[in-house]
Amino acid sequence: MAKNDDDKLLTVEDIRSLREEISLMHTSLAKDVVGHAPLVKKVVERFVERGLQREWVEKLLATLVGSEVEDDEEILIAYVLEELDILLNVEEESEELEKTIYIIVGGTGIGKTSLVGKLATRYTYLLKKSHNAVFLNLDHHKVGAVEQLENYSDAMEIPLISLDDFLENEYDVVFVDTAGSRGDNIEDIENFIELVESCMDYKIIVSLALSATSKLRDLEVINKRFNSLPIRNYILTKLDETYDLSDIINFLIKEKTPVSYISTGQEIPEDLIVATKEYLLKKFMED
Ligand SMILES: Nc1nc2c(ncn2[C@@H]2O[C@H](COP(=O)(O)OP(=O)(O)OP(=O)(O)O)[C@@H](O)[C@H]2O)c(=O)[nH]1
Ligand SMILES: [Mg+2]
């Protein structure tokens, strides 16, 4: 195709900035449209007060302005909840694992080691199939990290194995605890995954633990820090420590990665539930 100054092909950059412009136009258009429908505006304010991002709710409800439901508050609310329900992703529990490595990663002090304890106990004692589960520790950084797992191992009668032991034997599921980090120990985890993939036929599940008490920006940053790992799902922790789930909900509706479990307290193994959309939405809407 002929190219000259009058007939230039669009570059990827041009398309990206056009897209941003259109998105901005949509945003301000949605704001205007909502401003003309008092009840829709009221429902927008209600969800904004709950912590949802204004732009998101305005864009969503603007599509209903002018329709027959714009004067029906209940339907407007139900519409937002239904959209949240569609956008939230959860993962069903695999009740039978074979030759699986479960690696829990995430920031410091958010409940990774507790999750390893809860999950190993669950897979050993609480599910229909009793799994041959063990702990493996990749946290060589924190003083006391081994002791914490040793305590769980003694209390729950679940072996804590060494790397050599792991390489020589077969287990149904190996729960791997990692160092709490802001992302700087990722290389250790990558090396471990590489080692497993090079000489073993274990299936690997990497879960990113996220605290429900974190702010949206922190959740986004931590998610980005770990994105070189094959994160299969999120596990939410400390849901008992906050009444405001808006940041975690705002985060989850933009991510495709599903939530697998939710930790609701310090008790091992009781305070762990399989994630459901109903639970998340109910907690979000609770006062
Ligand atoms: N309230 C509450 N406390 C929790 C939850 N999960 C873990 N904790 C507590 O949070 C503290 C830290 O938990 P750990 O499991 O050691 O966290 P970690 O991510 O392994 O910490 P580091 O290894 O130091 O990065 C402990 O006191 C746990 O009992 C939860 O869901 N709710
Ligand atoms: Mg730990």
Topology diagram in text:
Layout: H1 12-35, H2 38-49, H3 54-62, H4 73-87, E1 100-106, H5 112-126, E2 133-137, H6 145-156, E3 160-161, H7 163-168, E4 173-177, H8 186-199, E5 203-211, H9 216-225, E6 231-237, H10 246-252, E7 259-263, E8 272-274, H11 277-285
Parallel strand pairs: 1-4, 1-5, 2-3, 2-4, 5-6, 6-7
Antiparallel strand pairs: 7-8
Helix pairs in contact: 1-3, 2-3
Bound molecules: guanosine-5'-triphosphate and magnesium ion.
Task: Explain what you see.
- Helix 6 links the parallel strand 2 and strand 3 (160-161).
- The protein starts with 11 loop residues before the first helix and ends with a helix.
- The chain has two domains: 12-87; 100-285, P-loop containing nucleotide triphosphate hydrolases (Rossmann fold, 3-Layer(aba) Sandwich), CATH 3.40.50.
- Helix content is 46%, strand content 15%.
- The model has no long low-confidence stretch (mean pLDDT 91).
- The longest helix is centred in the first third of the chain and has 24 residues, at 12-35.
- An eight-stranded mixed β-sheet has the order 3-2-4-1-5-6-7-8, with helices on both faces.
- Helix 1 crosses helix 3 (54-62).
- The chain has helices spanning 12-35, 38-49, 54-62, 73-87, 112-126, 145-156, 163-168, 186-199, 216-225, 246-252, 277-285; strands spanning 100-106, 133-137, 160-161, 173-177, 203-211, 231-237, 259-263, 272-274.
- With 287 residues, it is α/β, with parallel strands linked by helices.
- The site of guanosine-5'-triphosphate has 19 residues, from helix 5.
